[in-house]
């Protein structure tokens, strides 16, 4: 699995996009500390009932186009 690098500023935008796409995620689900990408991926995989590869792919896809409003 590839390692994501998410900056604090990118996370603020990404968090909004994820909360819109998955409206059942709580603020606790979306807590992120830079450098702890693996913890975030594991938590989201469990909460969304998906595998880590899907979560990593989804996050990477959204990170590649943060300016877009598309979910």
Written description of the protein model:
There is one protein chain. The protein contains 3 helices and no strands. With 71 residues, it is mainly alpha-helical. It has one domain. The protein is globular and about 25 Å long. The model has no long low-confidence stretch (mean pLDDT 91).
Secondary structure elements and pairings:
Layout: H1 8-21, H2 37-48, H3 52-64
Mean pLDDT: 91
Shape: globular
In percent terms, what proportion of residues is strand? under 5%
Sketch the topology as an H/E string, one letter per element. Answer: HHH
**Helical/strand content category:** mainly alpha
E-strand count: 0
CA-CA gap between termini? 23 Å
Count of individual helical segments: 3
Assign a percent range to the helix content. 40-55%
The major β-sheet equals: none
The residue ranges in which pLDDT falls below 50 over 5 or more consecutive positions are: none
Count of all domains: 1
Organism: Sphingobacterium haloxyli
Protein name: General stress protein CsbD
List key phrases describing it:
71 residues; General stress protein CsbD; 0% strand
Q: In short, what is this structure?
A:
This protein is mostly helical and 71 residues long. Helix content is 55%, strand content 0%. It starts with 7 loop residues before the first helix and ends in a 7-residue tail after the last helix.
């Amino acid at each position: 699995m590839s390692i994501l690098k998410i900056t604090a500023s990118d996370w603020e935008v990404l968090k909004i996009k994820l909360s819109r796409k998955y409206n059942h995620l709580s603020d606790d689900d979306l807590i992120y500390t830079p450098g702890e990408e693996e913890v975030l991926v594991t938590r989201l995989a469990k909460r969304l009932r998906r595998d880590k590869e899907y979560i990593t792919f989804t996050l990477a896809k959204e990170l590649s186009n943060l300016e877009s409003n598309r979910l």
